[in-house]
Specification:
Helix content: under 10%
Structural class: little secondary structure
Distance between the termini: 46 Å
CATH architecture: 3 Solenoid
Order of helices and strands: EEEEE
CATH topology: Pectate Lyase C-like
Largest sheet: 3 strands, parallel
Radius of gyration: 15 Å
Number of domains: 1
């Protein structure tokens, strides 16, 4: 991994694959459609950042602060999001499938129509989160703080269809 955290400031549409950006301060930054494939953003300050349609596949964001960030349509599949702060963030339509979310804070976050498949929400705070139309498949919630999941689409196993 390149260690560029002291030399670069990520920008919208930029590519930062395999980059070590531990502790980077990008609060309020425009990072729309930026790529962070397998990058390290541990403890990053991303409060209020625009990460719409950002690509964070297999990225390590453990402990990052994404409060009030715009993550609409972001691709966070298989990412390490343990202990991240997503309070007040907009994750509408984001894909978090297979991500590690133990202890994450989603209080007041918008997760409407998000894809939340195969996720461990153990110990996560989902109080006051909007989950309207969120797709949950094989996700666990042991010890999670929850309000209402009634508007989410939850399936233990996907339906079998015999397509011609």
């Amino acid at each position: 991994m390149a260690e560029l955290r002291d030399e670069i400031k990520p920008v919208a549409g930029g590519s930062y694959d395999y980059t070590d950006l531990r502790g980077v301060n990008c609060a309020g930054a425009n990072l729309e459609e930026a790529r962070f494939y397998r990058s390290r953003l541990v403890d990053a300050a991303l409060q209020g950042a625009n990460l719409r349609r950002a690509y964070l596949f297999e990225a390590d964001l453990e402990g990052a602060d994404l409060s009030n960030a715009d993550l609409r349509g972001a691709f966070l599949t298989e990412a390490n999001l343990k202990y991240c702060n997503f309070s007040g963030a907009n994750l509408a339509g984001a894909n978090l499938s297979g991500s590690k979310l133990t202890g994450a804070n989603f209080r007041g976050a918008n997760l409407s129509k998000a894809i939340l498949a195969r996720i461990n929400f153990n110990g996560a705070d989902l109080r006051e989160a909007t989950l309207d139309g969120a797709f949950m498949y094989e996700s666990t919630f042991k010890g999670a703080l929850l309000d209402d999941l009634s508007k989410a689409v939850y399936m233990q196993r996907p339906p079998f269809t015999n397509a011609p």
